[in-house]
Design brief:
heterodimer; A: 323 residues; alpha/beta; Rossmann fold; 2 domains; 8-stranded mixed beta sheet; 4-stranded mixed beta sheet; 10 helices; 17% strand; B: 383 residues; Immunoglobulin-like; 6-stranded antiparallel beta sheet
C-alpha cells in the first residue's frame, strides 16, 4: 500500500513527478469532487498524469442522485441541516472551552496549581470534541436507518460504475477543494480504494485519507477560531491529522496555541503539508521533489516516515527522525 | 530626520505674481485636492469674489473658506486630513450676489447618492476595498424583482431578491433584509460586494432581500406597519418560497441612517425573531433630558423611540455589528449606544472609520460586517 501525501498543488506542482516515480502501468483514477461544479475542469490535472487520468465524477454523480432519488435527497438535506445545527452547538461549546484554556494558560500560578488546571481545561476541550464525534456518529446511524444508501437504485448503479472504473486503474489521485463535499461523495458512493492501489493525495484529499478530519484556519476573519473536529475520513492513514497549507493557515509561531492543538489530539500526529511537501508511505524514505519533502507511507505502515514535519506536544514543529 | 517638504501650493506662491500659463501647468500637474502627507490642499480656479469648500466633516469648519493666491484667479485652502480618511465635498462660490454650489471641477473623483453626487477627497492610505469592485472571477448571483402584496403597508411593496451564485434548492441559506435596498444596490455596489465576498469564501452564501421605502421618514423611525410587513409578511413569504434556514440566528436586518433605526425598531417590536443586526451610521439620536434634540421634526419619532429604548434596554437580537464614521454628527450617539447594547448581553462589534455619512463609507464596512455576521466556509476549503 503506497500512500503519498503532497502539499498544495496550486503553485508547486509535484503530482506529475510523484505519480511518474511510482511507475504505474495503467489508468489513474482522479477524484476531484472537492472542486464541486468545477469538477469537470480537469484538463490540467489530467495533463499532469500524462493523459492517463480517468475522472470518477463523484460530484456530478451526486447531483444526478439528488435529482433522481427524492427520498435520498430529502434525507441528505435533513442530515445536512442536523449536522449544521450540531456544528453550531459544537462551535459555541468549543470556543468557550478554548477560551477557558487560554485564560487558564495566562493566569499566574504561585502554588503550582496552573499545570493541573491547564491539563483539566484541555481535557474539557477533548470532552467537547468527543461529544461532537459521538453525536455525529448518532446522526449517521439515524440517517442510515431512515434512508439506507444500499437501497437506492441510483446510488447502487453509480457505485457499480465507480467500482468498475477503480478495478481497471493502477492508482488513484485525490485532489483538494471543499473537504465536506469530498467526504460526502466518498461516503455516499462508498468509494473503497483497495489497499494495494497506490494513492497520491493533497490538501483536502490528504485530509480525506485520515481517520480524523480537523478543520482549521487561524486567520479566518470570524467564526470559531479554534480547530474543529469535522468528520472521519477513509481511515487509510489512521493516527494522522493532515494540515494542508499549514504555514498559511496556522499561527505556527504561537507555540502555546499549537501546543494546545497538539494536546487535544494526543493519539494523532498533526502533519504539516505545505507547498512542495510530499509525505510518502511505503518505504519510510523521504524523497525530495523540487524544494520540498515527499512523505511516503510503506505497506501497511501508518507511522509518519522520517523527514515528515508535525506539531509536537510542546507546540514546536518537529521532524520525524531528526536528532 | 529631514524637514518636511514644503507644500506644493507654498512653492507656487514663491513665483508671485502668477501668470495664466504657470497656473495652468500647476493645476494640470496636481489637480485638486493635493494630498501631501496628512494634508489636503483644495484648489478652485475662477473669477469669483469668494469660494469655500462645503463638507459635513465634524471638526472642520464648514464652510471652509479658500483664499485667493496673490492677485490670481487661483484659490486654495489647506487642511489636515489624517491617514485613511475619505471626505465628500463640494465647492461653493459667490460672485456678487450670486451663490453657486457644485462638484470640484478640478477633481474627477465622484461619489453618488440619492441626493446627487459629490467630489471625493481620499487621504493617503485610503483605498477602495478590492472586494467592492467588479471581479470577473467571482460568479455572479442573480437579482429577482418582485412585488409583494402587503396588508400591513396597504400596498404592493417592490423588493429585489438576491440569490447567490450556484443557488440550489437542496441547500439552506441565511436571510439578510436590507433597508434602503435600492440605494444599497445602486450606491454601495452591494450586489458586487456580495458576489465577491461569497466568491472569496469570506461570507456564507446567503439570500438578501433589498427593500426600498416609499415614505422613508414615516416608515423607518419606529413604524408598526413597516415592522409588521418585515416580520409577519416578508419573512414568512420568503420562508415558504425559498430554502432558508428558518431560525432567528440566520435572520439579519440591516440598514444605514434611518434604515438603521428601522432595523433596530423592527427587532425591538419582534424580539428574538431576528438573530442579528447590521447598523451603519444609524440615526440613534436621543436626549438625556428634555426633548431638544436639534434634529428637526423628522427626528421626533426617532428620539422618542431611542429614549424609550435607553430607559429599558433589552436584548432583542444575539449580535449587532455597528459602524459609524468619525466625521459624521452621528458618531456621538452611536458611540453612546454601544455600551447600552452590550449591557443587555447582546454581542456587539463596533467599527469606526475616518469617513462620513455616505454610501461609500457604508460600502467599505460591509466586508467586516457581513463576514462577522455570516462567516464564510473558508475552513472547509483546502485547494
Amino acid at each position: 500500500m503506497t500512500t503519498i501525501l503532497l502539499g498544495p498543488q496550486r503553485f508547486t506542482t509535484t503530482v506529475g513527478a510523484t505519480v511518474r516515480s511510482l511507475k504505474l502501468d495503467g489508468p489513474i483514477a482522479m477524484i476531484n469532487s472537492g472542486w464541486e461544479e468545477r469538477e469537470s475542469e480537469d484538463a490540467e490535472l489530467a495533463g499532469h498524469l500524462d493523459g492517463r487520468g480517468v475522472n470518477l465524477q463523484l460530484h456530478h454523480r451526486m447531483m444526478d442522485v439528488l435529482e433522481k432519488d427524492e427520498h435520498f435527497a430529502a434525507a441528505a438535506l435533513l442530515f445536512r441541516d442536523r449536522q449544521d445545527e450540531l456544528r453550531a452547538f459544537y462551535g459555541i461549546r468549543l470556543q468557550a472551552a478554548i477560551d477557558a484554556v487560554q485564560a487558564v494558560a495566562h493566569r499566574s500560578s504561585l502554588h503550582a496549581i496552573g499545570p493541573a488546571a491547564l491539563e483539566s481545561a484541555v481535557d474539557a476541550v477533548r470532552a467537547v470534541d468527543a461529544w461532537y464525534a459521538a453525536e455525529l456518529d448518532d446522526l449517521y446511524r439515524s440517517v442510515r436507518a431512515t434512508a439506507p444508501l444500499d437501497e437506492s437504485g441510483t446510488i447502487g448503479w453509480h457505485r457499480g460504475e465507480i467500482g468498475a472504473v477503480l478495478d481497471g486503474c493502477a492508482g488513484v489521485v485525490i485532489a483538494g477543494g471543499n473537504v465536506r463535499t469530498l467526504l460526502r461523495t466518498l461516503r455516499v458512493f462508498d468509494v473503497e480504494i483497495r489497499p494495494e492501489l497506490p494513492v497520491v493525495a493533497w490538501s483536502a484529499g490528504a485530509m480525506a485519507l485520515t481517520d480524523e478530519v480537523v478543520l482549521f484556519h487561524d486567520h479566518a476573519p470570524h467564526g470559531v477560531t479554534a480547530a474543529e473536529v469535522f468528520d472521519r475520513g477513509l481511515g487509510r492513514l489512521p493516527g494522522i491529522i493532515a494540515l494542508p497549507h499549514a504555514k498559511r493557515r496556522l499561527r505556527l509561531e504561537e507555540h502555546d496555541r499549537m501546543s494546545i492543538m497538539a494536546r487535544r489530539f494526543p493519539d494523532h500526529r498533526l502533519t504539516l503539508l505545505d507547498d512542495g511537501a510530499v509525505v510518502r508511505f511505503p518505504d519510510h524514505r523521504l524523497t525530495l521533489l523540487d524544494d520540498g519533502a515527499v512523505v511516503r507511507f510503506p505497506d501497511g505502515a501508518t507511522d509518519l516516515p522520517a523527514g515528515a514535519r508535525y506539531i509536537g506536544l510542546d507546540g514546536h514543529i518537529a521532524v520525524v527522525g531528526a536528532a | 530626520m529631514s524637514p518636511p517638504e514644503r507644500l506644493a501650493v507654498n512653492r507656487l506662491r514663491e513665483n508671485l505674481p502668477l501668470d495664466g500659463p504657470t497656473i495652468d501647468r500647476f493645476v494640470t500637474r496636481f489637480g485638486s485636492p493635493i494630498i501631501e502627507g496628512e494634508r489636503a490642499t483644495f484648489l478652485y480656479r475662477g473669477d469669483v469674489d469668494e469660494a469655500w469648500v462645503r463638507h459635513r466633516v465634524v471638526g472642520l469648519p464648514d464652510p471652509l473658506p479658500l483664499k485667493r493666491i496673490g492677485e490670481s484667479d487661483l484659490w486654495s485652502v489647506t487642511t489636515v486630513l489624517p491617514e485613511g480618511s475619505r471626505v465628500e465635498y463640494q465647492i461653493e462660490i459667490r460672485k456678487g450676489e450670486h451663490y453657486e454650489r457644485f462638484n470640484d471641477p478640478l477633481n474627477s473623483r465622484l461619489a453618488h447618492s440619492p441626493m446627487g453626487s459629490s467630489s471625493v477627497c481620499a487621504a493617503i492610505g485610503y483605498r477602495v476595498p478590492d472586494w467592492a469592485e467588479f471581479d470577473p472571477e467571482a460568479r455572479p448571483g442573480t437579482l429577482v424583482e418582485e412585488q409583494i402584496r402587503s396588508k400591513a403597508l396597504r400596498r404592493d411593496q417592490p423588493v429585489q431578491i438576491y440569490l447567490p451564485a450556484r443557488f440550489n434548492q437542496a441547500q439552506r441559506y441565511p436571510l439578510l433584509i436590507v433597508h434602503d435596498g435600492t440605494d444599497y444596490l445602486q450606491f454601495a455596489a452591494m450586489k458586487t460586494v456580495l458576489d465577491n465576498l461569497i466568491h472569496r469564501l469570506d461570507v456564507d452564501p446567503l439570500v438578501a432581500v433589498f427593500v426600498p421605502p416609499r415614505d422613508r421618514l414615516k416608515e423607518y423611525p419606529h413604524h408598526a406597519p413597516h415592522a409588521r410587513f418585515i416580520a409577519r409578511e416578508l419573512v414568512p413569504l420568503l420562508n415558504d418560497r425559498l430554502p432558508l434556514i428558518d431560525t432567528p440566528e440566520a435572520r439579519c436586518l440591516m440598514g444605514s441612517s434611518f434604515g438603521g433605526v428601522a432595523s433596530l425598531s423592527t427587532a425591538v417590536r419582534y424580539p428574538g425573531y431576528f438573530g442579528s443586526l447590521l447598523l451603519q451610521s444609524a440615526s440613534l439620536v436621543f436626549t438625556d433630558i428634555g426633548f431638544d434634540h436639534g434634529g428637526g421634526p423628522a427626528f421626533d419619532p426617532v428620539v422618542k423611540f431611542v429614549n424609550r429604548y435607553r430607559q429599558r434596554p433589552t436584548a432583542v437580537v444575539d449580535r449587532i455589528f455597528m459602524t459609524c464614521g468619525v466625521y459624521e454628527p452621528l458618531i456621538t450617539p452611536n458611540r453612546s449606544m454601544v455600551p447600552v447594547f452590550r449591557h443587555t448581553g447582546m454581542r456587539v462589534r463596533y467599527v469606526e472609520s475616518r469617513d462620513g455619512h455616505n454610501w461609500e463609507n457604508w460600502r467599505d464596512r460591509l466586508g467586516d460586517g457581513l463576514a462577522w455576521l455570516f462567516p464564510g466556509p473558508q475552513k472547509f476549503v483546502y485547494e
